[in-house]
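pls design
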């Protein structure tokens, strides 16, 4: 029987990669933002809200506000910048995807339905928009840390938000289509392959939930909403949790395979 990898081994492998460090910092950053949001929210009247209000009262005391709040604000701000720096040159990933569409490495069969062809073309569009989004993200980051002029950061940020929002919409559409396809396959497969397809469906559902969190987060900026900081604090936190969970399981499976082969 294989011994499951230790938590330390998985975490060590995760933090070696930029994605792992990014998602770890994201969870901490938005957990801090949730605490800051709870400090400013109004006292709720519902039963569940009152239970949450107990936590709110604990973090609103003078000692917490004077000692911890300034550090939390500094942490969330610095972690945001750090994550942007970690993701510099991330445009190489969507560029590679776009190149696969261009060279024909990602091609669609002639027997595909018209809708499958549409999803394929949307995938190419998504790769292109993702490439542009990452470039404008980099411009915003470089402007924010004073390598480029501050005016470039102000110019690049709203463009980056719009590009990301359209990418999220395309990601949701593609994932919903894949879930529909997977459900069709599950109805036809035999019992031996059922578990494999159910596992794939599970990860598609996790991805869809993550994209919906991104949709809430980015949509708040895209539509210029200002009604509650909690929308982005909560959606950013849960998006980070879901992304971290996917990366964790991926590294866990890799270590299991390495253990099995040795």
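designed seq:
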């Amino acid at each position: 029987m294989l011994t499951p990898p230790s938590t330390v081994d998985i975490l060590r492998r995760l933090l070696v990669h930029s994605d792992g460090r990014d998602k770890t910092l994201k969870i901490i950053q938005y957990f801090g933002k949730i605490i800051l949001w709870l400090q400013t929210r109004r006292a709720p009247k519902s039963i569940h809200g009152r239970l949450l209000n107990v936590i709110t009262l604990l973090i609103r005391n003078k000692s917490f506000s004077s000692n911890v709040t300034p550090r939390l604000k500094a942490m969330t701000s610095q972690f945001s910048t750090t994550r942007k720096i970690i993701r510099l040159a991330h445009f190489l990933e969507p560029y590679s995807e776009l190149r696969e569409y261009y060279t024909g490495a990602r091609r669609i069969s002639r027997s595909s339905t018209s809708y499958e062809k549409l999803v394929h073309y949307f995938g190419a569009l998504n790769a292109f928009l993702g490439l542009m989004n990452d470039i404008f993200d980099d411009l915003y980051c470089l402007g924010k840390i004073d390598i480029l002029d501050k005016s470039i950061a102000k110019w690049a940020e709203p463009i980056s938000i719009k590009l990301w929002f359209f990418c999220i919409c395309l990601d949701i559409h593609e994932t919903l289509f894949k879930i529909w396809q997977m459900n069709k396959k599950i109805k036809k497969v035999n019992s031996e392959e059922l578990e494999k397809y159910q596992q794939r469906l599970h990860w598609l559902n996790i991805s869809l939930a993550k994209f919906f969190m991104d949709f809430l987060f980015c949509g708040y900026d895209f539509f210029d909403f200002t009604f509650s900081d909690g929308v982005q604090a909560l959606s950013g936190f849960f998006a980070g949790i879901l992304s971290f969970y996917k990366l964790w399981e991926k590294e866990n499976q890799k270590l299991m395979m390495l253990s099995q082969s040795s």
